[in-house]
Every structure is written in C-alpha cells, then in structure tokens.
Specification:
The chain is α/β, with parallel strands linked by helices and 460 residues long. The protein is built from 16 helices and 13 strands. Strand 11, helix 11 and strand 12 form a beta-alpha-beta unit. Bound molecules: guanosine-5'-triphosphate (GTP) and magnesium ion.
Length: 460
C-alpha cells in the first residue's frame, strides 16, 4: 500500500438507489475528476473548497453526457483523510457508478483497499485509533444503545480519557528518567511514595475501564438469552410469540426442535438474542441427544435463561432434571399453557428451585408476553448497573491493552516502594506507556493496524 497515491472507491452500497457516491482521496483527486466532470465553478483552490458543485459527468471517450452530479471538494488538510477529497454524488446505478470508478482508475487513481480512507485519516493525524474503530462500530451498531456507545467513542471521549492517563504516566516517567540522569540528586528518595500514589490512581482508572468491558460488550453486541425446558412445554411457541413471527416449527410431538434457532429482538434499546433449544430430557434418539448437548452448551454461556414449564401437566422428573442444570443460573421461570386447567400450583415451583422471577403466559394465545419482556429487560438492568452514558469499553483490544498497562504499572509501583534502581522502574513505566499508547494508536504495531482496518468496507 502506497501512502501518497490517490485512491478511489464507490462509497455507497451496491444496488439501485437515489444517490451513489464515488470518493477520491489524494493530491490528484481534483485533476482526475476534472477530466470527466464539467462544471463552471469546479476549481481546485481554497476558494472553492468545502462547497458542492453542480455539473455533468462526461464520457471522455466520446464526449457524451452520462449523468448530472453534485461534486464536493474538500481541500487538504480539512477533510476526512487529511488529503484532498472529492466526492461525486450521482445517481446510484451500478453500471453508472462502475463507469465513473473506471474513469477515475484510468485517469491514474488506485482502487482503495478496505478501510483505507479511514486508515489515511488515522495516519494523517485526523483521528486517533479509538475514533477510527468507532467509525466501524457506528456502521455495524446492532442497537440504539450500541450506537450511542460507538458515537460517544467517535467524538473522542475514550481517547480523551486515555490521553489524560497517558499524560499522568509520562509525568511519572519523566521524574524517574531524571533520577537516572542525575543519580547524585537522590530524586526518588523523596518522590517515590508520591509517584507510587499517582501510579495507583492510574491503575484504578484502568481497572474502572476494564470493569465496563462486559457491559460494553453487552450493549454493543447483545444479551444471550436461552429458552430451555423439557420437551413439548412450548419453547418454540414462546420464541415465536416473543418474535411475533412463526419462526420455529411447533408440533405436539416432543422432540420437535433439534437445533438452536436464534433470532434477535430489541428490548429497551438493547439487542436480545433469543435462542430456542432442543428440549432436555431422556432420549435414545441420536439426533435428539446431539440437540440436547447443544442446549447444555448454550446454557453455560447464557446471560439470561428462560425456564419454560407446562402448567397443564404435572411437574415431573424431567422438569427437575432441567432445573438441576440451572441451579446457579437464576432463570426466569415461565409458566406456559395457562390457558388450560392447571395441573399444579405456583407454590410447587419452590420444590423445583428458588425462583426470583416467575411469569405466567400462554404462548399459544400470546398472553403475558409483554410482562415477560418487561421481566427480561428488568433482569438485564439489575445485572448490569453501568449506564450506557459512562465511558464504556466494548473492544477486547482496548481491554487487553489496559490489562497490560496495569500489570506493568503494578511492577513499577513495587519498584518505587522497594527503592529498586530507577533503571528498572523505568523499564516497567515504558511498558505501561507502550501498552496504553496502543489504545489510541500512538504505539500500535503495523500488523495490529492491518487487522483493525481490514474490518472496514471498501470506500470507508
Ligand atoms: N394450550 C396451549 N398449548 C400450547 C401452548 N404453547 C405451546 N402449546 C402446544 O404445545 C405443543 C408443543 O409446543 P412447542 O412450542 O413445539 O414445544 P417445545 O417446547 O418447543 O417442544 P420441543 O421442541 O419438542 O422441545 C404444541 O402442540 C403447541 O401448540 C400454550 O400456551 N397453550
Ligand atoms: Mg421446540
């Protein structure tokens, strides 16, 4: 990948639509576009920057008009990438967009790689790495709350916090460096306990951010909710009722569902992934047994579990067996088929397992479904007290870097408090700085950048 050439890509999704955009970035962008865009005022100087220009796209081969277009020009460095950027807004037909793209390539532009515009923005100092990552998170947001977290990161809230910690760490490091340079001044004799205190504040701040990771992921990627119970209690019917759609097959034959069926609903702005699973019970059937094994696996990793019981039939050993699997899981107990005469009392559940939340429903008649949704939403909130308005981290890369920072800092603190040689303390502080700098991109290795930007689409 060259840094100085002019890149281009179609920035809008493929397909017919009102508007399609072709984007160019680099010093040749204006010259290239001027070859096929004819407009009175499209002049690549500062006076014509940050404006929209109306004109006609001309096929340079035969001089025929292809489309009307609005072209924006953003002169470097006040652009997304920090380079000259030109965006051609024309009609969105794939043949037309492809033709304009080809004309740009023929005129000397190179097809941009995935994420290359944003990568250039990062390399040209237009945004730090957390903001670049937030661009993709905004595009991929799966819920309103997830979008809010990504948007906040895009405005630089996380970067500011990290830069502040980085600054504090640099200050500690500078004092230790001074102690190395002027050994006769015994700088650390007086300063070491104060420096250790300052380092501890940074460790606490890193820990506070690390603690948000689970909730950050939850808000960004959603809550895993498993519907379980013995065969035939109405799990698939419940999935369908929660979705408002006939997604899963429902029959009166026990053992109907054999694989995991996953669909997503949104509750209070949070994505909730619902998994309908095979009923758990005795079976000699190989496929059914394999399905049950998958159910057990899903239960292990679930954030929320709905244990479905059939009100119309007596609770039996199969219900007890499922309950035993969920002993430490605090499931929501869903009493289904309440449209039929009850074969047992609510109080009987206490013999099954302690139940904090019990909801009575009829999946067949869709009664009690909104109460159940409220119960799920309440359980999510009670488990996860952090508000999405805090600075949350939802990215494993950030968490790992923070963990490396705190480990190195712990070493440095021990060094400071045990009057270790400043040269040794300095090594730990440098490691901490390097780890912290990885988050915003000050010290991030090229291969990591490669991985980050490869998640992007072409044209972003
Ligand atoms: N009366 C009544 N019948 C229901 C209700 N919910 C489900 N059923 C019936 O119970 C039977 C089993 O429903 P499913 O939803 O397939 O049950 P399941 O738990 O997914 O069953 P498996 O996949 O075999 O484990 C079907 O005949 C449903 O119509 C309900 O609320 N009331
Ligand atoms: Mg089923």
């Amino acid at each position: 990948m060259f840094q100085n050439d002019t890149i281009t890509a179609i920035a809008t999704p493929v397909g017919n639509g009102g508007i399609g955009i072709i984007r160019l970035s680099g010093s040749e962008a204006c010259r290239i576009v001027a070859l096929f865009f004819k407009s009175k005022h499209f002049i690549p100087d500062a006076h014509h920057s940050h404006r929209l220009h109306f004109g006609i796209i001309i096929d340079p081969q035969d001089g025929s008009a292809l489309d009307e277009a609005l072209v924006s020009y953003m002169k470097a460095p006040r652009s997304y990438t920090g380079e000259d950027v030109v965006e051609i807004n024309c009609h969105s037909g794939i043949v037309l967009l492809d033709k304009i793209l080809r004309m740009s390539l023929d005129a000397g532009a190179r097809l941009a790689e995935a994420g290359e515009f944003t990568r250039r923005a990062f390399l040209n100092g237009r945004m730090d790495l957390t903001r670049a990552e937030a661009v993709i998170d905004v595009i991929e947001a799966k819920s309103e709350v997830g979008l809010k977290i990504a948007s906040r990161q895009l405005t630089g809230k996380l970067a500011q916090r990290i830069e502040q910690l980085y600054g504090n760490l640099l200050h500690i490091s500078a004092t230790v460096e001074a102690a190395i340079d002027f050994p006769e001044d015994d700088i650390l004799v007086d300063a070491s306990s104060a420096l250790a205190e300052q380092a501890k504040t940074i460790v606490e701040a890193a820990d506070a951010l690390i603690a948000t990771f689970h909730d950050g992921c939850l808000y960004a990627s959603g809550v895993q909710t498993v519907i379980t119970g013995k065969p035939n209690v109405g799990k698939s019917s419940l999935l369908n009722a929660l979705l408002g759609d006939d997604r899963a097959i429902v029959t009166s034959i026990p053992g109907t569902t054999r694989d995991i069926i996953q669909e997503t609903i949104t509750l209070d702005g949070l994505p909730v992934h619902l998994m309908d699973t095979a009923g758990i019970g005795d079976s000699d059937h190989e496929i059914e047994r394999a399905g049950m094994e998958r159910s057990r696996e899903k239960i292990k990793h679930a954030d929320i579990i709905l244990l479905v019981l059939d009100a119309s039939r007596p609770l039996d050993h199969a219900d007890y067996a499922v309950a035993a699997l969920l002993a430490d899981k605090n499931p929501i107990i869903v009493i289904n088929k309440t449209d039929m005469p009850s074969a047992w009392e609510r109080g009987d559940i206490s013999a099954l397992m302690p139940a904090d939340v019990t909801v009575a429903i009829s999946a067949l008649h869709h009664t009690g479904i909104s109460e159940l949704k409220q119960a799920i939403a309440r359980m999510i909130v009670s488990h996860h007290s952090i508000s999405p308005s805090d600075i949350l981290i939802a990215n494993a890369r950030h968490r790992n870097a923070l963990e490396k920072t705190r480990t190195a800092l712990d070493q440095a603190i021990t060094g400071l408090l045990s009057a270790r040689a400043p040269e040794l303390i300095s090594i730990d502080l440098h490691a901490a700085l390097e780890a912290l700098g990885e988050i915003t991109g000050t010290t991030t290795a090229d291969d990591i950048l490669e991985v980050i930007f490869s998640r992007f689409c072409i044209g972003k």
